[in-house]
Amino acid sequence: METAQFDFTLPKQLIAQKPAEQRDQSRMLVLHRNEGRIEHGKFLDFPKYLKMGDVLVLNNSRVVRARLYGRDRSEREFEILLIEENATNDWWTMMRPAKHAPNGTEIHLKDNLGKPSEVIGTIKETNPEGHRRISFSGTPNVLRMLEQLGHVPLPPYITRDGNTESETDSERYQTVFAAIEGSVAAPTAGLHFTSNMLDQIRSQGITVCFLTLHVGVGTFAPVKSERLSDHRMHKEYFEISDQNVQLIKEAKRDGRRIVAVGTTTVRVLETLAALELRPNASQAHAAKTSAGQTDIFIYPPYQFQIVDGLLTNFHLPRSTLLMLVSAFAAPGKNSGRELILKAYRDAIEKKYRFFSYGDVMLIV
Predict the structure, then answer these.
(1) What is d(CA 86, CA 89) in angstroms, rounded to the nearest whole number?
(2) pLDDT, tens digit, for every residue of 179-191?
(3) Which domains, from first to last, does the chain contain?
């Protein structure tokens, strides 16, 4: 398939610039994939679509304050997004304006109040994708200083005055169940949940469990190749307890549904399927984890092995996320693309809010 087949036109005013007033107040489009039928409702209705015995799986990765600002010796301003740690104080980054950041450039970082800090980032290398490898000095570990130096890594389509986040962003660009630090972008489908809703879901006889995928450039990097088969995903770290692996295996064996919250959760579960959902062989510890890296790229006509239902936000044109949901709309077929784009046209007509802070879609 070709990347251009996943393009669509979105009115700029439908790109959500702030979250709904309350987390669970978003609208929800429900796509019944086997019938091609669409319903419109509210996210508060989500528990009604779950069945006793279902397993709801969510990504509990916590977003770090991965966006940094600084100046070079000529006082030129730079924005730096940390995307992959190679070693302590050694990071691959995305920079703006990249054309003014050759190897050897020193960036003097500012703290999150805009004041100069002691930390300096030196550009050591540039890869073919234009990412800069930066070595940080002036701190034992820049990762441990992100609360003082960093800003919430809002995506570029969300604009804020003064290149800084609001107080609301600090809370709302994080799920209520975020636990393990490591993401440089939010697993946005989880942003809609409140603790009360999760309690309600559990009270209905539904199992809620968590895994971790640290969202990195692999999730949000654009597809630049003309054909999907030529695109290569970056690897992202994941982990899941062996207890939850066993729980999912038992649910599949019993014919119960696995409902994934977010495309990142789907990618972990389908990666585990490729590994036959085998937990670690050792039984030495009660709380063991299966961990690794995934670069799985899911697009039509992918045949899903684990996931039976998917809750997800509305995604960017030509993105790997749009390709994944298109695959999920018609597993094993190419027709899911048309079904998803039809649903997106319907959402646009009804003025749904798109992208990270936008409304949500349930595919069952």
Answers:
(1) 8
(2) 999 999 999 999 9
(3) 3-63+170-363 (3.40.1780.10), 67-151 (2.40.10.240)
